[in-house]
Amino acid sequence: MASTISYQRTDRTVPTRSPERASWDRETVHAILDEGYVCHLGFVRDGAPVVLPTLYARVGERLYAHGSTGSPALRGARQDEGLPVCLTVTHVDGIVLARSAFHHSINYRSVVVHGTARQVTDPAERAEALDALVNHIVPGRADDSRRANAKELAATAVLRLDLAEVSAKVRTGGPNDDPEDLELPHWSGVLPVTRGYGAPIPAEDLDPSIPVPGYLATR
Amino acid sequence: MASTISYQRTDRTVPTRSPERASWDRETVHAILDEGYVCHLGFVRDGAPVVLPTLYARVGERLYAHGSTGSPALRGARQDEGLPVCLTVTHVDGIVLARSAFHHSINYRSVVVHGTARQVTDPAERAEALDALVNHIVPGRADDSRRANAKELAATAVLRLDLAEVSAKVRTGGPNDDPEDLELPHWSGVLPVTRGYGAPIPAEDLDPSIPVPGYLATR
């Protein structure tokens, strides 16, 4: 059943440029989303675009983000019609240096999600989403922290965006120089971009008898 | 003269949340922009938001991006009125683990630029912008590559966005737990997020007598 393997293509998710880099494969999309935790969320305010970095988590075919109930953007999502958004996640994997300036490029993996974000009101779904937002960044952390109390829950808006109109775009490999440029004397290849974590820094007021938890030590 | 030190604040650049993290200081904004090279560019298409990752470079108080002249988005910027955009750059510096789930956060530095992008038509400015786009990612590389020829220039659209309506947002430091949570048994602190570069990977067809250039070896 193709529909379970891939997202349906739409005018918005079929790129006009570099179509060979596009993918609608669910596993590809999920893997890119699960590797990150900061997205860039775009919406329209007073007719103009706004793009803000925010945290997200995936639960099955749903993405969750959260914010203050006082946020103007999230207030927009509270109304019945929801808030039209574009949510984009990008990982940069390498800088591609070609002999020609024109063919310089970036190796990257990105996912673009179009849809309507809505505020979640069901308490059970809100609790699940908030746990997911913590565990998506640091797996296992939700159980090792104090969960939100009533006052905090009242101050927190949870946004949901279903994965329906989605595509990934992936570039890998070396430079694609034109044949007539191959003899030029310029070094060409890929400078890999790496990401990682430093040693955990305890809070100044942390009880020194509390050890670094295993879910951090193993990263 | 305050106007030369800071960008003028507008309704769009004064945040409703965490105003203590906001800055309109030019040096702060420039430093954040200059450390990155991938932005998330938002615009409105058929009334809906679109957010795409793209490369950018700063030249003084101008940002440049480029793309194919066939791109629908860039075609929008060709018209006299230009294309209203929001260009956002984000660096993630650390994951902040508080005792409470609610106070979990991210240390980050971001810049949000609102404005109207316009296609650059002046040949000298286009050449300067294209060099800047290469040098912004790998300083010194523009001189060590073949510059665009007439055909490539004809296929390349250069977008310009002036830095006028701009703000930065910066979070640093440890968790801000509530006093009543300080005795909880959960580890708290910051997991630093690091970025770097791996060893350069030569193109498969690179003449092995061409050494890795100094501008890569020293990164």
TrEMBL record, chains A, B:
SUPFAM superfamilies: FMN-binding split barrel. Residues 9-21 have a biased composition (Basic and acidic residues). Signal peptide: none annotated. Residues 1-21 are annotated as: Disordered. Pfam families: Pyridox_ox_2. It comes from the Bacteria. This is Pyridoxamine 5'-phosphate oxidase family protein. It comes from Streptantibioticus rubrisoli.
